[in-house]
Amino acid sequence: MALLAVQFTFGALPVIGKIVLKTIPSLAVVGFRVGITALALYLVQRYRGNMRLENKKDYLRFAILSFFGVTLNQILFVTGLSLTKASNTSLLAVTIPIFALSFSAIIGIEKLRKIKIAGIALAAIGVILLIDPRNASFSSETTVGDILIILNSLSYGIYVSISKDIVTRNGAIKSIAWVFIFASVICVPLGLYSLSSVDVAAVSPTIWLLIMHVAVVSTLIPYLLNAWALARVNPSTVAVFVYLQPLIGFFLAIVFLGEKLDFKVAVAAVLIFAGVFLVTKKFAPKQILI
Q1: Long-range contacts of the stretch 191-196 (C-beta < 8 A, 24+)
Q2: Are 253 and 131 spatial neighbours (Cβ–Cβ below 8 Å)?
Q3: Are 14 and 149 spatial neighbours (Cβ–Cβ below 8 Å)?
Q4: What is the pLDDT of residues 117-135, one digit of tens each?
Q5: Domain extent listing, the chain
Q6: Higher pLDDT, 281 or 60
Q7: Which listed site, 95, 132, 144, 266, has its alpha carbon 20 to 30 Å from 89?
Q8: Among residues of the chain, what percentage have pLDDT more than 70?
Q9: What is the pLDDT of residues 69-104, one digit of tens each?
Q10: Burial track 19-46 (b if 16+ CB lie within 10 A, e otherwise)
């Protein structure tokens, strides 16, 4: 349920992000996103207890985790989004579970199993069918942005793969607080410098509200829920739930915008749910590939 909620909160980010990026530079958006989240998490954790880590080596581990999960991830995503289409971003997100499972297998966190590979492949096919690559525009104009989004997927895949142990040991709120505190050391100064080129007084209240939405609803809440879930399930399970994002978007459009449920959407939904089921299913030892 936590991972499902994450997909609802993350799902609208590409569209909302494109609106904000018309007014606010990408690095400034990252600065707001990271800074607001870091401050909120710090205040919550201080209210709950202290920020001290029992294992001193965890400070370095959180710094590394922060680099891949927030600093590099956010800069690549927001900058890439500003240079490509939202549909391209949604389509390229199918690489996240592939990277997460591959890296988890390389470092020995998860076994690379045939049924998990099949599950990820099925869900990826469902997403591609749902989005329809013809709606994307992979051209020379979007090449740099598309590459940045793929690198963003790789960075997030690495983050998901290496964070399970340390998050389980320190708890979700304290862990994500430290992740964003370390990220804010880099992202906030970069954001402030980038914001200096903008006439802040001319920015509409709507844009400021959307920035708060990006920071709280599309960052703080999903990162916390992801961390909480990651302490309880495998990294590949956390990653494969990404495939539900476009499906949720389509079903919301059917409910609230009156769009029709056609055969293509139905087939895509079956493939995505089947893929998620296979990845989250318990496995027998004989199914191990590597």
Answers
A1: 191/27, 191/28, 191/29, 191/30, 191/31, 191/32, 191/34, 191/35, 192/28, 192/31, 193/27, 194/25, 194/26, 194/27, 194/28, 194/31, 195/24, 195/25, 195/28, 195/31
A2: no
A3: no
A4: 888 888 788 777 766 666 6
A5: 2-287
A6: 60
A7: 266
A8: 86
A9: 999 988 898 888 888 876 677 677 778 888 888 888
A10: ebbebbbbbbbbbbbbbbbbbbbbeebe
Give the type of residue at 205: P
What distance in Å separates the CA atoms of residue 261 and residue 229, rounded to the nearest whole number? 31
CB atoms within 10 A of CB 203: 15
pLDDT band at 191 (very low <50, low <70, confident <90, very high): very high
Per-residue model confidence (pLDDT) at position 175: 92
Which of residues 239 and 80 earns the better pLDDT score? 80
Place of tokens 């590099």: 72
Residue 42 clears pLDDT 90, i.e. is over it:
yes
pLDDT at 283 over 60: no
- How far is 186 from 203, CA to CA, in rounded Å? 24
Q: What pairs with residue 113 in β-bridges? A: 288
